[in-house]
Amino acid sequence: MQQTYIRALNSSHRSYQTNMFLKAKSRHSVQFCPPLGMESHRIENDQLLTSSVYQHRYGSHRARLNIQASGDEDDMNGGAWCANPEEKINWIELDARTLTEFTGIITQGRDDPIESDYVSSYYVAFSNDSREWTVLHDGYAEWLFFGNSDKNTPVLSQFMEPVVARYIRILPQTWNGTMCMRMEVLGCPVPDHLSQYQSQNEVMHRDDLDYTHHNYLDMEKLMKSISDECPNISRFYSLGKSFKGLEIYAMEISDNPGMHETGEPEFRYTAGYHGNEALGRELLLMLMQYLCKEYKDGNPRVRHLVDETRIHLVPSVNPDGHMKAFEKGSELGSWTLGHWTEDGHDIFQNFPDLNNILWDAEDKGMVPKLISNHHVPIPEGVLSSNGSVAVETLALMSWMESHPFVLGANLQGGERLVTYPFDMREPEEEIRMIEDQSLFRWLAISYASTHHTMTQTHQGGCHTDDPTGGMGIVNRAKWKPIPGSMNDFSYLHTNCFELSIFLGCDKFPHQSELIREWEHNREALLTFMAQVHRGIKGVVRDKEGNPISNATVSVEGINHDIRTGESGDYWRLLNPGEYRVTARAEGYSPFTRLCVVGFDPGATYCSFDLNKSNWDRIKQIMALHGNRPIRLRQVLRHRVYRVAQASPY
């Protein structure tokens, strides 16, 4: 297995190997095993062993497919496993901990912005005791697998026949630059009813759902079938079209679909902002099925949630990007394939930057007396047709402004944690804390703590050390700040509180993982939805009982107000406590009352009846005097004059 021997292999051997791959793929497509979990981190660090390490930051723990390097050269987070260049024999070994039917390997080069390091050929060996090894043979000689030709594109090598063993070892033979590798191993645990390891990792099938990946047409068909199965509680509709003309589909689930009910909050889950983050898309499709089936079966929890909430689910915000990623498949797309829209936008951070507008006004002491602390207007020209805002983003913004959403979350991938705003951070400035930080932290914890694995951070994060301190939640500006995020825009421009839920290390998990992921996320998805009923709610009316729209509801001590909807109703998410709440509307006198939020489920009713004010008349009098300050005596003189004019004598 020396490099001189490998270089002597001629092109006829390469052609033979390619043909054998094609035959094996055709003959064993049904037996093609899923990933063991290098990318998803189900394979733990202590299951990996290497012959040598170039530097500490390029250890065996960095050999995971699609792992991303840190920009800090002094930390432990390099972009691959890299061997010591002085060593002549190099290998990386995986202990599956049980007999496993190995069927293939996926390799990838080192993640690095400058260097181009990757393995171009390698042998594969197997063992049952990690001492005696057998190199895989193709019938003529030891089988040389041809690996990567660039550092980013994953390359699959499939074995002609499955190999049963406990240990697998990859032995790189030729490479470009430094010998560096990222990888995934494909295999199926051999059934063993006495194996405690297998029973602990077995996922029980509980809900009768469609646990498959769906392309665009399959998704459309499934959503239509759900609407047909539950027509009384569902509405299948579209937010608009993508750049390539695909519909951005949504499903409404409510006891009165198609209409807003006064006093009923509206909730949203969105997914697929980045087309290659397919797990969120499939989870929302499963959630639709679950709500439909459980409502029909009389599940009291689901019935209460659907009857008391108007739920909107958007599984694929970026259908164009997903089509690209879907064509490659769950393991063979790169970290970025399908991430952006067809015309190159990252939808999630494509919203108008309202943070700097508010923060500049705050620094000048203009908030809230001169500049509003909520519903910050979009600057003129930002939404012009110069291509800076994606058509998908415009569709989302129109949808957000046309519904009185109270709470929402966007499902993403590549990490396993929940982030809360602000997402943006000014360069060289301290992080700006959001007014509702304690509430946002609670909302984030409500998901992370009920997810099966999100707070199990003993192995660190997906790409670096755990940024959450074991909590499963982090402020986005502290972790990875970005401008123009949907979360910041939603908080500053609408009434809706929005968070980001990162579902796992593997953006596009294998189809066999979908059952497990549904079990991990189901309770968290339901629990987070129920938080929309936290805090206070009510209706703002005049003394005749007419609803007042666009009234402002403010909470003492929290410099962020909300507005009433067209029906005069409002919802203000709050943690338990006593609050002095004030309702204001133009032409009415403000009114303040004490509202108490308890620990029991359900929002506290806190409605307001406002009296007409004399402010309109006062403004008329001021206009007569050129809007200059006037004395009270002049106001009284005008009142006497009006009374005299109205007198019949």
Describe this structure in words.
It is found in: Secreted. It holds the Pfam family F5_F8_type_C. It comes from Cyprinus carpio (Common carp). This protein has helices at residues 3-7, 11-27, 196-200, 216-229, 278-296, 300-308, 319-328, 355-363, 391-402, 437-448, 476-479, 486-493, 514-530, 615-624, 632-646; strands at residues 48-50, 81-82, 92-108, 118-127, 134-135, 145-146, 155-176, 180-189, 234-241, 247-253, 266-271, 310-314, 405-412, 415-420, 473-475, 497-504, 536-542, 552-555, 558-563, 569-572, 577-584, 591-597, 604-605, 608-610. It has 649 residues and is an alpha+beta fold. The radius of gyration is 30 Å and the shape is elongated.
Write the layout of secondary structure elements.
Elements: H1 3-7, H2 11-27, E1 48-50, E2 81-82, E3 92-108, E4 118-127, E5 134-135, E6 145-146, E7 155-176, E8 180-189, H3 196-200, H4 216-229, E9 234-241, E10 247-253, E11 266-271, H5 278-296, H6 300-308, E12 310-314, H7 319-328, H8 355-363, H9 391-402, E13 405-412, E14 415-420, H10 437-448, E15 473-475, H11 476-479, H12 486-493, E16 497-504, H13 514-530, E17 536-542, E18 552-555, E19 558-563, E20 569-572, E21 577-584, E22 591-597, E23 604-605, E24 608-610, H14 615-624, H15 632-646
Parallel strand pairs: 11-12, 11-13, 13-16, 14-15, 17-23, 17-24
Antiparallel strand pairs: 1-3, 2-8, 3-7, 3-8, 4-5, 4-6, 4-7, 9-10, 10-12, 14-16, 17-20, 18-19, 18-21, 21-22
Helix pairs in contact: 4-5, 5-13, 10-13
